[in-house]
Design brief:
Peptidoglycan synthesis regulatory factor (PBP3), Domain 2, 388 residues, Beta-lactamase, 2 domains, 8 helices, alpha+beta, 26% strand, 7-stranded mixed β-sheet
Amino acid sequence: MIRILAAAALAIPLTAMSVDAFDTRAAAAYVIDHTTGTVLLNKNADEPLPPASMSKLMTLYMAFEAIERGQLSMTDELVVSAHANSFGGSTLFLKTGERVSVEDLIRGIIVLSGNDACVVIAEALSPDGTEGGFARLMTRRAQEMGMTNSTFANSSGWPAAGHLMSMRDLGLLAQRLLTDYPEYYPMFAETEFLFDANESANRFNRNPLLKLGIGADGLKTGHTQEAGYGLTGSAKQGERRVVFVLSGMDSADARAQESEAIVNWAFRQFAQRTLATSGQRLAVAEVWEGAEPQVGLVPAEDISVLIPVLAGKEVAAEVVYTGPIQAPIVAGTPLAELVLQPEGLPEQRFALVAETDVAHGGFLAKVSTAALSLIKTVRDTPEAEDGV
């Protein structure tokens, strides 16, 4: 069995031209096209860094999980502990002994970045009733979700030794919130939440992009002296959605300007194109001992990719499979991969499946296959030199 490249069989009608990477001022950044899964920007994206309040997204994710499995409900009222009441920074100004609904706590975390609200949720879900126990649970769940550069010391992102996340992990978490809990996601776009009329100044969402008309609808800002200013954001324009994370900006204004520039760049410099439709034959594979000598290779679903907007006529592509493929073959069986390499973007791979059934050819097919194999062996063998 051999590895075959069938690039000559393709007719992909686009050429991706290179695109300059965004020259971000952020210390670390990650940008991904959520619709196609294409990574557009990676700057120190796998380095574990202090995430500040952006790590509250993990507390929110686990709260949504708890609601989904019936451990919590939005109408439950949770008691505020003295530990929760001890936090400064961004808070809901909760009082010890006060009871607050889960819905208000979640909105308080999303819109007002309430440290105290995080602790109330954490203590309610912790295996041992402590915030530390919940932080250990957060770390374990993050690892299960593939966030391998994340460790948590608390529920809020309050500065603490060992409380770290990478920008890629935050991007993955943002995508999971979008796909796993779309029913709760609209809360991230809320620009205002008045929890306490006596603290009416503390009611506005800190996300600087929500009112700019660029499709931004989430997710979470963060700031500490150690982490600088950061933002985990998402924006949707048309059918495309972009998720981005940046950290290490030196001011709130710089964060706002950089975030807007990243969103504009991601939408203006790239376009989503359908390169092949479901069932469209892109190549053929050789068949071993089959009633037919070849089988068509087709995508099981439309292949839509992201490419730079300045595009020509062809894109670098090849079909890769291990063959010849043994009959019988069932239509729809994955047999090969279409490998696309738009210039300036990561390699993209898509499964190709058998276009039709190919039955085993029986005795005659075996004889024919053996004969062809023998002919090929003889043809490829150098003639023996005369012996002495």
